[in-house]
């Protein structure tokens, strides 16, 4: 039980559920509740499959392709930066691409991104595969429940407030993306 709790808390911190909710509202807040539920289910399944597969095969894949967590950080940061800039510059944002919104960017890299996958890999050696797998599944379930209730926040803000907040969060998301890229590049080139 101690191993599971240790893995759960570590992954919970890396997932940052509260940080995902505003981004989810920014990306899917204008969609119907049915569409939002579909996106949450899609993102949960995708995040679960990718993360559990990564827990089982990630170290092998990293070695096979000579990839490090820092490469992951740079790639994920670039993806988030492109998506946030596109939303900020377009009046339509992500609404044209709702069919796979749950896959990218919500499932990967928001729910299960470089920090979560790296955390999971580091936990395997200390708490084992089973505790890490169960802790990941529990965190994805909690995140999904939080996203399913994101409309409560949307109702409090109203549509106008939600639009304004979503643009602010897209700016924050772009800054976070730049931070991921810079940290990854520093680690890759300076060993920091």
Strand content: under 5%
What is the domain tally?
1
Number of strands: 0
Number of helices: 7
Tell me the structural class. mainly alpha
Which whole number gives the mean pLDDT? 85
Classify the helix fraction into a percent range: over 70%
How big is the Rg?
17 Å
Write the layout of secondary structure elements.
Elements: H1 2-15, H2 17-28, H3 33-65, H4 69-89, H5 102-111, H6 114-148, H7 150-190
Helix pairs in contact: 1-6, 2-6, 2-7, 3-5, 3-6, 4-6, 4-7
Kindly describe this structure.
There is one protein chain. The protein has 192 residues and is an all-alpha fold. It has one domain (2-190). 86% of the residues lie in helices and 0% in strands. Helix 1 (2-15) packs across helix 6 (114-148), helix 2 crosses helix 6 and helix 3 packs across helix 5 (102-111). The protein is globular. The termini are far apart. The mean pLDDT is 85.
State the main characteristics.
globular, 192 residues, mainly alpha
Brief account:
With 192 residues, this protein is mainly alpha-helical. Helix content is 86%, strand content 0%. The chain has one domain (2-190).
């Amino acid at each position: 039980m101690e191993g599971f709790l240790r893995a759960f808390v570590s992954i919970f911190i890396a997932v940052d559920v509260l940080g995902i909710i505003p981004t989810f509202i920014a990306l899917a807040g204008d969609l119907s509740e049915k569409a939002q539920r579909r996106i949450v289910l899609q993102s949960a399944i995708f995040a679960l499959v990718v993360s559990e597969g990564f827990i089982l095969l990630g170290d092998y894949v990293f070695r096979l392709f000579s990839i490090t967590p820092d490469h992951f950080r740079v790639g994920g940061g670039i993806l988030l930066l492109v998506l946030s800039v596109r939303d900020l510059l377009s009046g339509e944002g992500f609404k044209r691409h709702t069919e796979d919104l749950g896959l990218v960017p919500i499932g990967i890299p928001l729910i299960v991104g470089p920090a979560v996958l790296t955390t999971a890999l580091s936990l395997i050696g200390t708490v084992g595969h089973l505790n890490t797998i169960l802790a990941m599944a529990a965190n994805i379930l909690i995140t999904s429940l939080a996203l399913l209730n994101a409309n409560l926040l949307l109702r409090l803000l109203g549509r106008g407030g939600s639009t304004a907040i979503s643009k602010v969060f897209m700016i924050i998301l772009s800054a976070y993306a730049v931070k991921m890229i810079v940290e990854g590049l520093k680690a890759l080139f300076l060993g920091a």
